[in-house]
Amino acid sequence: MAREFDQADLNEPSHRPSSLDEFIGQRGLCANLRVFVEAARTRGDALDHVLFHGPPGLGKTTLAQIVAREMGVGFCATSGPVIARPGDLAAILTNLKERDVLFIDEIHRLSKPVEEVLYPALDSRKLHLIVGKGPSARTLSIDLPPFTVIGATVRIDLPPFTLIGATTRSGLITNPLRERFGIPLRLLFYEVGELTEIVSRGARVLGVVLTVDGAREIARRSRGTPRVAGHLLRRVRDFAEVASDSAIDAHDADIALGRLGIDERGLDAMDRRYLSLIADNYGGGPVGVEAVAHTMNLTPDTLIDEVEPFLLRSELLIRTPRCRRLTVAGFDH
What we know:
Keywords: ATP-binding, Cytoplasm, DNA damage, DNA recombination, DNA repair, DNA-binding, Hydrolase, Nucleotide-binding. InterPro entries: AAA+_ATPase, AAA_lid_4, DNA_helicase_Holl-junc_RuvB, P-loop_NTPase, RuvB-like_N, RuvB_wg_C, WH-like_DNA-bd_sf, WH_DNA-bd_sf. The protein is of the alpha/beta class and 333 residues long. The protein has 3 domains: 7-129 and 158-186, 3-Layer(aba) Sandwich (Rossmann fold), CATH 3.40.50; 192-259, Helicase, Ruva Protein, domain 3 (Orthogonal Bundle), CATH 1.10.8; 269-332, Arc Repressor Mutant, subunit A (Orthogonal Bundle). Helices cover 44% and strands 13% of the residues. A 5-stranded parallel sheet has the order 2-3-7-1-8, with helices on one face.
């Protein structure tokens, strides 16, 4: 399974944030999460189910790992597309220990049959599996704990556990599933100061001599996202090493980022192509995302998840459920 790259990936494994105190950014979220974790741990209960939602690369996976570590429990990670059948989910759930954390990335991509099996597991820690007959019969090749057979249904008791879901598309999560998360938490884009701290820490781990203004220049053009900051730090380091620079300052970072096609606002070639296409081909909009995606030879999901969030935050784009329209700043960029 592809793993989310966030601020943890700026560090070697032994230097990853291991607690909420070490995690940089998302201060309000972390403060509340700290209370919820401490309360559950004091009671000896499993933490309520958690939903992390927000743009990609902001630290959802790292926070899920930290929650498990601070709760002192096991951690199991998977993703929505991997859980293709109810039996796949059953195999995961029946291997959880008491109070373990199950992390499902891209949880909005769970199929309806899998979701329906998940509901009673979240509500009452029961796993209900229907044993069919004839052509519809299914064989479960999993080791089951003690279970009860009621008619054609196998009912399995599960230990208390915490589901942590992560999604970049919270609007695609069904209401029945959304309502089962007692702790919904939205991750926000990072401020430049927070990213500067993350980049500086990453540089120390990588053995890169980076000035404060150099770190800030990288942070300023990182789209508010630790994942992007990590990529840019490594590429700026490459340019500096080839140029035999002893220390990377803002000027060095600016030159390297310019060669990478990252402009002063942090926009890359794909962002600029997106804006230019809407401006030149559609007069600034309105235009549907499907039409733009087709012209750019990309999927609508790629534009919605990877391109549009930063353009919206930068007030270059207006998005409605049916169309996109450039702002004056977006038209002029």
